[in-house]
Design the sequence.
């Protein structure tokens, strides 16, 4: 049966409108829930740098948010280590809302760098770790992560990595706890006090426990590992001024770095 | 396939809810007319998502939902859809449903969403979905179409779950994230450990498993391609 052009056009228009309404309605309805899910996910990743994955898994979503509010304060710094409180339009900047992917496209000097301070419960002065955000490119798509430094601002307390499309079982293994734990205890400054990032080595299964700046690599995922190395190097370098700023101020300032 | 479309007869007496013909709509695609092993459709997602059981299960549920709803919608509209733009209409319906699934996953199962979102999007291009719409839903009543979509999706689901079972077991030593290999090692003592096979984690592993399943099935059913 051949229908007239008018019929086809009317049918298409109605179909488009109905489907459009359905989809925009759903998105309106689910929007707030999705926003919460994204927020929870970000906070989980931030906490993942200082907590064990099993500890986080044991907590319910509400508990995670509560724990986060109690134990984390955040701020945003620029490449010179100065705190930024307002953006160009004079609005308050919230570290959790800084879009690292968007900032990545800007020149390093213009980027905003979020800092999350993990402190003892109820006492903001008593910092336990400084968490910084890192971002870069893996083999297929973007990779990102959070890295927690001890209060000496040198020793890595923990990392979490995330990725969008790395190969499952190969590059995607950067999200595994076993791989992330390899970074614990590594250092970002060498003995003479100069910055030296931590790098995954080629090959897997070697023991690098004596080396401060080397981490066992990922077999079959050298390009992802290189991406991780570049990401850490780029961002830790950018945060260096901030680290040194806190260090150079009297040691009691480290505790009071809020 | 086309035999089913030709089969529709107007019946005066209402048919039983699960008559023999309707049962066949569901049971045929499980083995004898399986979309993956016989028709060899939907292979791309069968290879991609099957590294682990859990995402595979979510994928299977998503495909079942999309196929049933798409078949139902197209079947309800079958007499009004202009034949010249029917493919676009099917595509629009399927794409909308897939977007719905994606949004729901993002809201309620964010971890799964992160892992699966690309592949859920690719359900749109899954040949099984469009194939059933074109071959069945356009020419059959809504209830039959729902059964047909459910059957085909189920046929797809059990195959990808079977593939995922072997891939996760052999590749990661676990099933549904529960470590099986570690358990076996602890039974036999510390010296005894099973090595996982990295090949199973890559898509190549899925090809091998799928090939074996097709081989076993065709040996048993005696199916030969013409």
Sequence:
């Amino acid at each position: 049966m051949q229908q007239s052009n008018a019929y086809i056009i009317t049918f298409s228009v109605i179909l488009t409108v109905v489907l459009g309404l359905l989809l925009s309605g759903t998105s309106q309805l689910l929007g707030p829930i999705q926003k919460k899910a994204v927020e929870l996910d970000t906070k989980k990743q931030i906490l993942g740098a200082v907590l064990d994955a099993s500890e986080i898994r044991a907590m319910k979503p509400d508990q995670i948010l509560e724990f986060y509010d109690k134990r984390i304060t955040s701020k945003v710094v620029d490449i010179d280590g100065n705190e930024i409180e307002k953006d160009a339009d004079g609005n308050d900047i919230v570290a959790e809302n800084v879009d690292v992917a968007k900032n990545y496209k800007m020149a390093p000097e213009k980027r905003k760098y979020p800092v999350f301070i993990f402190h003892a419960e109820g006492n903001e002065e008593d910092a336990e770790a400084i968490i910084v955000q890192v971002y870069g490119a893996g083999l297929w798509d973007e990779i990102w992560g959070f890295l927690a430094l001890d209060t000496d601002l040198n020793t890595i307390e923990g990392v979490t990595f995330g990725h969008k499309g790395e190969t499952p079982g190969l590059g995607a293994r950067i999200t595994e706890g076993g791989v992330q734990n390899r970074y614990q205890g590594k250092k970002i400054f060498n003995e003479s006090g100069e910055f030296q990032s931590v790098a995954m080595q080629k090959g897997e299964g070697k023991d690098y426990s004596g080396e401060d700046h080397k981490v066992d690599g990922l077999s079959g995922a050298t390009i992802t590992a290189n991406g991780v190395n570049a990401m850490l190097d780029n961002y830790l370098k950018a945060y260096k001024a901030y680290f040194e700023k806190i260090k150079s101020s009297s040691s009691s300032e480290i505790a009071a770095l809020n | 396939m086309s035999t089913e479309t030709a089969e529709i007869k107007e019946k005066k007496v209402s048919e039983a809810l699960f008559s023999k013909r309707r049962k066949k709509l569901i049971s045929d695609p499980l083995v004898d007319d399986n979309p993956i092993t016989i028709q060899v459709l939907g292979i791309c997602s069968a290879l991609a998502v099957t590294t682990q059981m859990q995402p595979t299960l979510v994928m299977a549920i998503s495909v079942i939902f999309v196929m049933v709803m798409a078949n139902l919608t197209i079947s309800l509209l079958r007499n009004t859809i202009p034949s010249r733009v029917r493919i676009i209409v099917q595509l629009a319906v399927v794409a909308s449903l897939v977007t719905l699934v994606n949004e729901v996953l993002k809201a309620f199962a964010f971890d799964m969403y992160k892992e699966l979102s690309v592949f859920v999007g690719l359900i749109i291009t899954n040949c099984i979905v469009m194939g059933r719409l074109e071959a069945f839903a356009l020419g059959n009543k809504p209830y039959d179409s729902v059964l047909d979509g459910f059957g085909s999706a189920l046929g797809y689901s059990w195959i990808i779950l079977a593939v995922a079972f072997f891939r996760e077991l052999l590749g990661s030593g676990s099933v549904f994230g529960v470590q099986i290999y570690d358990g076996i090692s602890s039974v036999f003592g510390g010296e005894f450990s099973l090595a996982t096979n990295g090949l199973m984690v890559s898509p190549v592993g899925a090809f091998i498993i799928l090939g074996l399943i097709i081989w076993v099935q065709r040996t048993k059913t005696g199916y030969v391609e013409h």
